[in-house]
Design goal:
Shape: rod-shaped
Largest sheet: 3 strands, antiparallel
Number of helices: 7
Distance between the termini: 43 Å
Order of helices and strands: EHHEHHEEEHHH
Strand order of the largest sheet: 2-4-3
Length: 214
């Protein structure tokens, strides 16, 4: 009867199972449990062993020269931390079931500093506002220089200039918007927004979605 049971078929590796790496920040809720599970040297050796090849408890114990009870204890902790899982069941020649353990991800990465893995939207917006401010200053300088270099109609007349009322705010904005200063401001803001939107859709959203799926 025991010969009819599957013994040790070739286990699927991490690449065969199409796993993705797991990124865990030190401030994530799962970080403390993961660090606690891998504190022991034995636990780290077990984890390293099953990343090399999925194995049963007895095979792991043989490879790292430890007891089956000790390996089982650490595997339970690693399972609680969602670092390993049972992917299939083998049978001994006596028909006894043996769970095969494998990692839950292709790689485990613990990191400090979220910006190194996930772009910061707040930082990007701060840079956008800074760039808009710089463009605004440059456009104001261009407008002033253009106003100085452009002769006014009254300077061509031999008659005494007639006192003109001060321009309203709206007239000043129209003059600025229709001049080279307004052109520089408009083009600058358009380019800044264009690059921000491109960054948001091509970099921030994919990175954010990937991080949330971990």
């Amino acid at each position: 009867m025991s010969s009819l049971l599957p013994l040790k078929p070739t286990p699927r590796t991490a690449s065969d199972r199409d796993l993705e790496p797991r990124l865990v920040g030190f401030e994530d809720e799962s970080a403390e449990q993961i660090l606690s599970a891998v504190t022991s040297t034995t636990a780290r050796r077990i984890l390293n062993q099953i990343y090399t090849e999925p194995m049963t408890v007895s095979d792991i114990a043989t490879e790292i020269d430890s007891s089956v009870q000790n390996v089982s204890y650490h595997l339970d902790r690693l399972r609680d931390a969602e670092l390993v899982e049972v992917i299939e069941t083998w049978y001994s020649e006596q028909g006894r079931e043996m769970d095969v353990y494998a990692p839950t991800n292709s790689a485990l990465v613990l990191f400090a500093g979220a910006e190194r893995t996930t772009p910061s939207l707040t930082t990007a917006l701060r840079r956008v506002f800074s760039a808009v401010g710089i463009v605004g200053v440059v456009s104001a300088i261009v407008h002033v220089r253009w106003s100085v270099l452009t002769p006014s109609p009254s300077s061509r007349s031999v008659e005494l200039p007639i006192q003109q009322p001060d321009p309203t705010m709206w007239e000043m904005l129209v003059t600025f918007g229709t001049g080279p200063g307004g052109f520089v401001l408009g083009v600058g803001v358009f380019l800044i927004l264009f690059f921000f939107v491109a960054w948001y859709w091509r970099t921030y959203r994919p990175a954010r979605s990937h991080t949330q799926s971990m």
